[in-house]
Amino acid sequence: MDVRRAIFERRSIRSFHDRPVDKELLIKLVEAAIWAPSGSNIQPWHFIAVSCEEQKARVKAFAPGLTVLPPAMLVICTDMDLCERKGGRLGRDVLSLMDAAFAAENINLMAVELGLGTCVIRSFNQAAVQEVLRLPRHLVPQLIISVGYPKKIPVRPRRRDVAEVLSWEGYG
User: Fold this and answer.
1) Mind listing the pLDDT tens digit for each residue in 102-112?
2) Helical H runs in the chain?
3) pLDDT per residue over 120-158, tens digit each?
4) Which residues contact 155 (CB under 8 A, 6 or more apart)?
């Protein structure tokens, strides 16, 4: 699949078939994620794959943004100590979030190629999810990505026209 097609076909999927997602496919998603850009090449990420029903339910209890229990989840965590040590305040406060977002987008695009659907969730209690996943203090969950086989693909939402959002050589 070409990148343009993946970009245009990607949707936030909130309805999944019950079919489990093979471990090998989750590994492929994480392989795509680790090739995302990373500020100062810090690569502060750590990924937690969650597919056990009980553990998914525990995470969902603290994630109102997870409207359904998906077949699998990938939780993108950031090593905040590494971010600060290698990138200072900028690394900790800005680059860490950008790196998680870049990794999430690579996961989203690879999922399209693999026939999977995803939805990126930030609406969750970070401290509670950190505890549920037994993360050390320095590993902070930034995003939860639900993963599964889509029941239905939402229609493409309207996007602003390029002429509305692009300026040349300065604003206006």
Assistant:
1) 999 999 999 99
2) 3-9, 23-33, 53-60, 80-90, 96-113, 126-132, 162-165
3) 999 999 999 999 999 999 999 999 999 999 998 888 889
4) none
Domain that holds residue 12: 3-148
Report d(CA 145, CA 61) in Å as an integer. 15
CATH for 126: 3.40.109.10
Q: What are phi and psi of 145, to 5 degrees?
A: -115, 120
Sheet hosting strand 139-148, strand order edge to edge: 45-50, 72-79, 139-148, 117-121
* 162 domain-assigned: no
- Evaluate the CA torsion angle 1, 30, 142, 90 in order and state its sign: negative
If one counts the domains in the chain, the total is: 1
State pTM to two decimals: 0.95
DSSP 53-79: HHHHHHHHTT-TT--S--SEEEEEEEE
SS3 content of the chain, % helix, strand, coil (to 5): 45, 20, 40
Between the alpha carbon of residue 123 and those of residues 66, 119, 154, the distances in Å are 8, 12, 21
